[in-house]
Design brief:
The chain has 17 helices and 32 strands. It is an alpha+beta fold and 660 residues long. Helix 11 packs antiparallel against helix 13 and helix 14 packs antiparallel against helix 15. The protein starts with 21 loop residues before the first strand and ends in an 8-residue tail after the last helix.
Length: 660
């Protein structure tokens, strides 16, 4: 939900802090990257300002709220720019027993009964007003507009000290009731905002920054409970074995199928595969009827940044294997917890060592280096940790790429990533890249090596000018041939650019269209906020550029370039739907998410096909995605390492329906 929680902000004329302003810092890696300010003008007039910088992105929001004598919010005006720097002008008002709100895709009026409006763009501290209303409520619940009910619980109270050793009692509040996991925020005992903490970035009262790690560890204890409970509820283990009979089996090595198959699973391995007429199912096996169903290897998410909250949805969407493309040390703990079955998530098979140059536009995770020597040391450290590859990011000095790549290759590691600013993809390939991350990085190759792509330029230049690229030109053909000659693979994450370039406010984002009727109301609303990253006057240019992107991806496929299916946080099933949409045959689309990832990392002895002796990572689908790729959405069950997971049970925990 986006209930006054979105991280955004702006400074505008005449929005000036008062003397009683409370200051908060937005902190990442122990360093301030933004701020939150709150102040009042009288007892019922509240002002909030929030901003942060994330590689040139980041919101800037001012929020002005007035309340009545009971504390009910009766007006709110939010202005500024959102995370992608697009204009924000959002309003809520209660007048003559009517509640009205207007944002970038809604313009509604309903009878007012004391509800709280769930805004699209707000600031972290604003929820203090809602908490105070909740504490006044006899039921400890409050109704939300446009829909839903919110409740709270005080789950922990601790005392912290600031830099001057002044003490403050604070409470961890869990909010729930809108479906899905509770979310947690820290307040003082008078319900004033204290901090919103996460591994990615924390917002905390100024002077208390030293408490972040300790408070976050306390918070995680409560956050984990939803996921450990869900793992227990959604996991089925059968020590005697599992038999899937009368099923169509996909041969990912060739892209073919055979019908009336039976697959036996014992412990975490595939035991036997063959025709149902010839395979005897041992007594005691759990029998799953696969009639009119399609059995294939589990999907590989080849561009993930795994966090605990994403795990259940990945399993429900059939993702059994994952390549992490950049994360913090917590990933290793999460990997262990997945292996212990205490949380849901795919096997994390490949971990990337993430390296960027320190600076204003540095990456939000990984090793931030100041010299080539530091980078070389980090390549070694990542190898020693068990990382299989190095991912370089946008601020890396182009002159460092070759020595870093040489070091990685000497250790048997692959090199992939963004193309550094002031460098082309062609130059990066010559310097040692094995793979290019994101399709926009290939598009930028044709705009030369003078482009500063550390910031939003890497998206907006492609959006505005990508339509000028002729995919059939000699220069494009020559570049693709170089990729082929050097065996360069690509992780296109094209779903991101569909969202950034074509999803407009007021319409369900295309990734969610096939499942919109199953979604909880708040999730469906969030899917309508639009991902478009620029002024809508550029919409046609961006749409045309996206069409060129699709043509380029098809040209890569036609010329034998290995395409690895990743999303960078999207829905993998939709990434595959786009591949099919641009004309890639469905059998190869399925192989891009099964066979080719395992082959790329020399793991075909364990994964990638349905064969005896391989790890039992499988998905059973209603329909036939080889004929109709949209059937990939109808996952009847997911099997990971011999355990059965029910997508329906997982979605129910989030307040969603399912196709059956």
């Amino acid at each position: 939900m986006k209930l006054l929680l979105s991280f955004i902000t702006l400074v505008i004329v005449n929005f000036c802090p008062a003397q009683d302003t409370t200051y908060y810092n937005a902190v990442r890696f122990g360093k301030p990257v933004g701020k939150q300010l709150t102040w009042k003008n009288g007892s019922n007039d509240f002002y909030y300002h929030y901003e942060y910088n994330d590689r040139g992105r980041g919101p800037s929001i001012n929020s002005h709220i007035t309340t009545n004598a009971k504390g009910n919010i009766i007006t709110q005006h939010i202005t500024g720019v959102d995370y992608y720097k697009t204009k924000v002008d959002e309003r809520f008002e209660v007048k003559k027993s009517k509640a009205s709100w207007k944002n970038k895709f809604e313009n509604e009026t309903v009878p007012y009964k004391g509800e709280v409006y769930s805004n699209i763009n707000g600031t972290p501290a604003e929820n203090e007003l809602i908490l105070k209303l909740l504490k006044q409520s006899p039921t400890k619940k409050i109704s939300i507009l446009p829909s839903g009910n919110l409740e709270f619980k005080v789950v922990k109270e601790v005392t912290v000290t600031d830099d001057n050793n002044s003490k403050l009692s604070i409470q961890l509040i869990g909010f729930s009731g809108l479906g899905g996991p509770p979310f947690y925020t820290w307040y003082d005992v008078n319900s004033n905002f204290f901090g919103s903490l996460s591994d990615w970035m924390s917002v905390i009262k100024k002077g208390f920054e030293k408490n972040i790690d300790e408070l976050l560890s306390v918070q995680k204890v409560f956050e984990k409970k939803f996921y450990t409970d869900l793992s227990a509820a959604a996991t089925e283990k059968y020590s005697n074995g599992i038999a899937i009979k009368n099923v169509t089996v996909f041969n990912a090595a060739e892209g073919s199928t055979f019908i009336n198959g039976t697959v036996l699973i014992k412990n975490n391995l595939i035991e036997k595969v063959g025709n149902s007429s010839f395979i005897k199912i041992p007594a005691g096996y759990k029998i799953v009827d696969g009639t009119n169903k399609f059995l294939m290897p589990g999907l590989w998410e080849m561009h993930g940044h795994f966090f605990m909250e994403a795990g259940p949805q990945m399993i429900a969407q059939g993702v059994t294997n994952l390549r992490d493309m950049g994360n913090g040390d917590e990933l290793w703990n999460l990997k262990k917890r997945i292996e212990e079955d205490s949380i849901l998530g795919p096997e994390i098979n490949v971990i990337s060592g993430f390296i960027d140059k320190a600076g204003e536009f540095a990456a939000p995770t990984g090793a931030l280096i100041n010299s080539l020597d530091e980078g070389l040391q980090w390549v070694q450290k990542y190898h020693d940790k068990g990382c299989q590859q190095i991912k370089l990011y946008s601020s890396i000095n182009p002159e460092w790429v070759k020595p870093l790549a040489d070091k990685a290759h000497s250790l048997g590691m692959r090199v992939c990533g963004h193309i550094p600013a002031f460098m082309t993809a062609s130059q990066a390939i010559d310097a040692g890249y094995n793979e290019v991350t994101h399709l926009n990085m290939l598009m930028l190759n044709f705009f030369g090596d003078t482009v500063d792509t550390r910031n939003m330029t890497r998206f907006k230049l492609v959006g505005k000018k990508g339509n000028t690229i002729d995919v059939n030109s000699d220069v494009v053909k020559s570049f693709i041939q170089k990729m082929n000659d050097k065996n360069i693979s690509v992780d296109p994450t094209i779903n991101i650019f569909e969202n950034m370039f074509t999803d407009m406010p007021g319409k369900i984002a295309k990734a969610f269209v096939p499942i919109a009727k199953y979604m909880a109301a708040n999730d469906k609303r969030n899917a309508m906020t639009g991902g478009f990253i620029d002024d809508e006057s550029y919409a046609k240019s961006y749409a045309h550029s996206y069409e060129v992107m699709k043509k380029l991806l098809k040209a890569l496929y036609d010329n034998g370039i290995t395409i690895l299916s990743g999303t960078d946080g999207g829905i993998l099933q939709h990434e595959l739907e786009i591949y099919s949409e641009i004309g890639i045959p469905n059998y190869d689309v399925l192989r891009m998410a099964t066979y080719f990832p395992a082959k790329q990392y020399n793991m075909l002895d364990k994964y990638g096909t349905i064969e005896a002796g391989k790890i039992a990572n499988l998905i059973l689908i209603d329909g036939d995605p080889k004929k109709n790729i949209k059937d990939i959405r109808n996952i009847y069950l997911t099997i990971k390492e011999g355990n059965i997971y029910s997508p329906k049970k997982i979605y129910q925990a989030y307040g969603w329906k399912y196709y059956y």
